[in-house]
Specification:
Blueprint: E1 2-6, H1 14-25, E2 29-35, E3 54-57, E4 66-70, H2 74-85, E5 92-99, H3 111-121, E6 126-131, H4 140-155, E7 163-168, E8 178-181, E9 188-197, E10 203-212, H5 232-239, H6 244-249, E11 252-258, H7 265-271
Parallel strand pairs: 1-2, 1-5, 2-4, 5-6, 6-7, 8-11
Antiparallel strand pairs: 3-4, 7-11, 9-10
Helix pairs in contact: 1-4, 2-3
């Protein structure tokens, strides 16, 4: 398969090297376009008010992988690759492997998920991979699972404009409990701003936060389908699907399908007939 790989940890991160090298060794045609430095938590930001620069990088990845370092955001990287650097569209856009989880509402801030979503916006399927720990250093089980997933999709391709958010638990390969298809959960943080003084006497603030581990998970708000095909049994089954936040705690790999349409069906219903 022809694959475009990006991330938000930067071109020199261990996660993207492990992913790209593993997939190249399996015979895939790999192009890597990543930020030239860490751009975590940049969301879906784009660079509009200054030029974007891209430089081809050698000696970081295995022979045969074409790699570019880009001065922009993760979304810039994918947009630039599809619009200028690649001679033909890829079969899939991959992002990661991120160092740290992207679970629940983390996806709203995540540059990793946004890079894959940029591919979806351009009409391509995308997969975001994250290792659910900032301290765990073994990315190989996550890369192995990426290869397993791609083997499945070679025979049964993902529908275009599909985004899968994949999180891998930080445990040895033999301790992974299995794979679960999950729904997006909720992660809340206790945000703390540490007040500091710089050498020139000016005040600045450093954001730090703690995860609230026991946040109650929300009910699933169902989105409308074009043909209205969801029926009561479908809704009941979907409501029972476990969240990614819960499943990762049980050492399961989680696969959560996401979309860029954030329309609230309940909100539409509530606003019907509104007069302003």
């Amino acid at each position: 398969m022809k694959l475009l790989i990006s991330n938000d940890d930067g071109i020199f991160s261990l996660g993207v090297r492990t992913l790209a090298n593993t997939l190249a060794a399996a015979g895939h045609d790999i192009t890597v376009v990543c930020p030239d430095r860490e751009r975590s938590a940049t969301g879906h930001g784009l660079t509009l008010h200054k030029p974007i620069r891209a430089e081809q990088i050698e000696g970081v990845f295995h022979t045969g992988i074409t790699a570019w370092a880009c001065s922009g955001t993760p979304s810039d990287c994918v947009k630039l690759a599809l619009g200028a650097l690649l001679d033909a569209p890829p079969d899939l856009v991959l992002s990661g492997i991120n160092h740290g989880s992207n679970l629940g509402t983390d996806v709203l801030y995540s540059g990793t998920v946004s890079a894959a979503m940029e591919g979806v916006i351009e009409g391509l399927a995308g997969i975001a991979f994250s290792l659910a720990s900032f301290s765990w250093q073994d990315f190989q089980p996550a890369a192995n699972f990426a290869q397993t997933l791609l083997t499945r999709f070679e025979h049964s391709p993902l529908p275009k404009e599909t985004l899968l958010n994949v999180n891998i638990p930080p445990v040895p390969q033999e301790n992974i409990a299995g794979v679960k298809v999950t729904r997006q959960g909720l992660r809340r943080y206790i945000d703390m701003f540490e007040k500091r003084i710089d050498p020139r006497g000016k005040t600045y603030y450093w954001l730090a936060g703690e995860i609230l581990e026991d946040t109650p998970q929300p009910p699933l708000e169902f989105v409308a389908t074009p043909d209205g095909s969801l029926v009561g049994m479908d809704l009941e089954w979907m409501q029972s699907v476990e969240t990614d936040v819960h499943a990762i705690r049980q050492s399961y790999i989680t696969i959560t399908p996401l979309q860029y349409n954030l329309t609230s069906v309940h909100g539409l219903a509530a606003l019907q007939g509104l007069q302003i």
